[in-house]
Amino acid sequence: MSEKKNLLLKLFLSTLYLSAFTFGGGYVIVTLMRKKFVSEYHWIDENEMLDLVAIAQSAPGAIAVNGAIVVGYKLAGIIGIIVSVTATILPPFIIISIISVFYSFFRENIFVALMLEGMQSGVGAVIASVVFEMAAGVLKERKITLVIIMLISFIVTYFFNINVIYVILVCIGIGLIQTFMRKKVDEK
């Protein structure tokens, strides 16, 4: 098997696995993507993972699919996108299809209801872990600007109920300004 086919198969299986066994939405998958793609396979580094999360959250759509797009493109271009997105959407598509067929049974089953309630606690813990790890990564770099932006973002969303979309748009603007300023300094 050629190296590219092997990479595509590994990409397909890893994103399929992540998608199939991740409950709780896109923020939960971020931790698993980091573990798989950064720590285990070394396909991307820690800073690229932070960029991936920023892109995935900023773009419209599911974070898992957006993350799969970024990783797939980085590893294998357009074919990588197709492979990783297909693997990412396949498990939820199959699961939702099955659930929709048996909806009335699932709705009234006490065991399913209790299982879903228990999963909420686990999802909360995983999301807290993601926030902690991402904040620790930012603090480790000791870039005061990033720390200030992180704190202000938390304060305005938590205490002043500012919609997170506005915070993301402002952060995108700040990132663009910083990029253009660095580019001008590098040209001089």
From TrEMBL:
Keyword Membrane belongs to the record: yes
Q: Which residues form a coiled coil?
A: none
Note the InterPro entries from the entry. Answer: CHR_Transporter, Chromate_transpt
Membrane topology recorded in Swiss-Prot or TrEMBL: Multi-pass membrane protein
- Compartments in which it is found: Cell membrane
* GO MF, one example: chromate transmembrane transporter activity
One cellular component term (GO) for this entry is:
plasma membrane
Keywords (alphabetical) are: Cell membrane, Membrane, Transmembrane, Transmembrane helix
**Membrane-crossing residues?**
7-29, 49-71, 78-104, 110-132, 166-182
Query: What single Pfam family name could you report for this chain, choosing any that match?
Result: Chromate_transp
The main location class comes to: membrane
Provide the family line. Belongs to the chromate ion transporter (CHR) (TC 2.A.51) family.
User: What protein am I looking at?
Assistant: Chromate transporter
Tell me the organism.
Answer: Longibaculum muris
